[in-house]
């Protein structure tokens, strides 16, 4: 698999990582045995970077990873997790040193490790200067608790301010063939400051899978149930457009997931992708994109089939988007 670096100081990991949000049932019911099979397959396929967070099942995803690592001490991953969101008594953001330290210590305990390679602020607390937050994360680096600092869903201007305090290893944002906002400055800003850009939901929350989801697949607890792009009539419009891409991928002898991920990686050499899956079988397709080089003709045809802005509906509802920095 193609190898890419999380920031200028490493570590070097496979260009395709594994997003572990689905381990906590975010997209429907799952079980720990299936998650452990997925982790075992990831290791065997060269998928060496895991991405999780405190709020994925309120620590459940971290605990599942921690139990796998304990049971398989020879299998090592580069792990990223996230803090800064507080769910009780009401969801809000707290980037204070005390809160981040408390959450980091909890993540270390659940993962069963003494050091985390990359620690993100999951959502920025707007009332607190980002320079202060970067300084807090820098303390964790100095203490040996984390290897690098990161931010999720921040604006390019915020990244530049944070990087002036301490090198930022990575910024993660949603990026895929149907979510192109990071092209308006964030990917370039990451390159300027030496940060990796980590694309989450690079398969459009399942739209580029072999079997495209239907509305019947979304139970009330599924994140997509009330997300505008998955609500009618938007969903039917989007399915029809994406089906053209899926047919093209098949005509090229490539799984849609592999082609969609290869497209993401082709956009810049500092981009990594962290598709999530509960299935070891789907992971094989994801990992295959780490060695798939798309031709200029293929990239041109993909842009024709799925031009910027093709998706109907916003990527988040008004409630879901709270805390994400908008910059264009």
From TrEMBL:
Keyword Oxidoreductase listed: yes
GO cellular component terms attached to this protein's record: cytoplasm
Keyword set, alphabetical order: Oxidoreductase
GO molecular function: oxidoreductase activity
Residues in NADP-dependent oxidoreductase domain copies: 15-305
Chain ranges passing through the membrane: none
Keyword rRNA processing: no
PANTHER family: AFLATOXIN B1 ALDEHYDE REDUCTASE (PTHR43625), ALDO-KETO REDUCTASE YAKC [NADP(+)] (PTHR43625:SF40)
Protein name: Aldo-keto reductase, putative
């Amino acid at each position: 698999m193609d190898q890419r670096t999380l920031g200028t100081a490493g570590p070097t990991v496979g260009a395709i990582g594994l997003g572990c949000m689905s381990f906590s049932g975010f997209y429907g019911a799952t079980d720990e045995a299936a998650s452990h099979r997925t982790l075992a397959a990831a290791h065997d396929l060269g998928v060496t970077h895991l991405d999780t967070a405190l709020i994925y099942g309120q620590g459940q995803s971290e605990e599942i990873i921690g139990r796998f690592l304990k049971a398989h001490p020879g299998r090592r991953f580069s792990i990223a997790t996230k803090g800064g969101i507080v769910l009780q008594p009401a969801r809000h953001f707290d980037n204070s040193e005390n809160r981040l330290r408390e959450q980091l210590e909890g993540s270390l305990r659940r993962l069963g490790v003494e050091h985390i390679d990359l620690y993100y602020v999951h959502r920025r607390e707007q009332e607190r200067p980002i320079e202060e937050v970067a300084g807090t994360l820098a303390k964790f680096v100095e203490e040996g608790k984390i290897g690098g600092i990161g931010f999720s869903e921040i604006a390019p201007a915020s990244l530049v301010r944070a990087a002036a305090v301490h090198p930022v290893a990575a910024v993660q944002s949603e990026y895929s063939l149907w979510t192109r906002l990071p092209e308006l400055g964030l990917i370039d800003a990451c390159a300027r400051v030496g940060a990796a850009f980590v694309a989450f939901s690079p398969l459009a929350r399942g739209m580029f899978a072999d079997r495209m989801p239907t509305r019947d697949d979304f139970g009330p607890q599924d994140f997509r149930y009330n997300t505008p792009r998955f609500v009618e009539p938007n969903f039917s419009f989007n399915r029809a457009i994406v089906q053209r891409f899926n047919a093209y991928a098949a005509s090229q002898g490539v799984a849609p997931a592999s082609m969609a991920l290869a497209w993401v990686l082709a956009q810049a050499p500092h981009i990594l992708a962290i598709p999530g899956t509960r299935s070891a079988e789907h992971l094989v397709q994801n990992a295959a994109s780490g060695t798939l080089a798309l031709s200029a003709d293929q990239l041109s045809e993909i842009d024709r089939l799925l031009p910027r802005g093709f998706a109907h509906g916003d990527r988040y509802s008004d409630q879901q988007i709270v805390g994400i920095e908008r910059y264009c």
